[in-house]
Structure formats: structure tokens, C-alpha cells
Amino acid sequence: MHDTVYLMHDTMIAMKEVVIKGRLTLFR
Fold first, then answer.
1. DSSP 8-class letter at 1
2. 6: Cα within 13 Å, side-chain hemisphere
3. Is the pLDDT of residue 1 over 70?
4. pTM strictly above 0.90
5. Where on the tree of life does the source sit, at the highest rank (predicted)?
6. What is the dihedral of CA 6, 9, 14, 17, to 10 degrees?
7. What is the DSSP string of the chain?
8. Widest distance between CA atoms in the chain
């Protein structure tokens, strides 16, 4: 169960990073 929670947490962080990078690219 703990592994699944950590996996979901890591996935959310990765998605947020992708969104932030995408926004920075659009603004440039």
C-alpha cells in the first residue's frame, strides 16, 4: 500500500513539473 501511495505522489509531482515547464515554454 505504501508503494502505491509513493508512486501516486511521484506521479503528481512529475505532472506538475511538466505543466510548469509547458507554461514557461508557452510564455517564451
1. -
2. 3
3. no
4. no
5. Eukaryota
6. -140
7. -HHHHHHHHHHHHHHHHHHHHHHHHHH-
8. 41
